[in-house]
Write a structure and sequence with these properties.
Radius of gyration: 14 Å
Number of strands: 6
CATH architecture: Roll
Number of helices: 3
Largest sheet: 6 strands, mixed
Mean pLDDT: 91
Helix content: 10-25%
Strand content: 35-45%
Distance between the termini: 40 Å
Structural class: alpha+beta
Amino acid sequence: MPDLRRPEQVTEALVEMLAAGDFEAAAALYEDDAVFVEVHAEARGGSIAAAHREFVEAGYVLHPDRFAVMEAGGLALVHWAWTVTKPDGSAFKGVSAEVLRRQPDGTWKFVIDNSDGAAVLWADE
């Protein structure tokens, strides 16, 4: 298991696990009642691994660009800019907003992973 003692390390581990196709390990980075949000969908529990599998099997590759981390009282808000490369070589960019909680062992796990950040405000357009 990777070092997860800083909130941004969880995101870095997620990117590595997706690249390796290890969707169950990726899902283990989330608390049991966590939510994973994409612009047009929401996944919880066991369906988080399936959502990640669908993304990777579609040929998308996720690349983290930069992080901003704010911590308070065992919670962390992580914003990170990302680039996704599509199978045809084109790419698109976005910014994620994630809430993580420090676990009793000092590691961090996702509570809310909003992969598209503020884009969810325009999901119905």
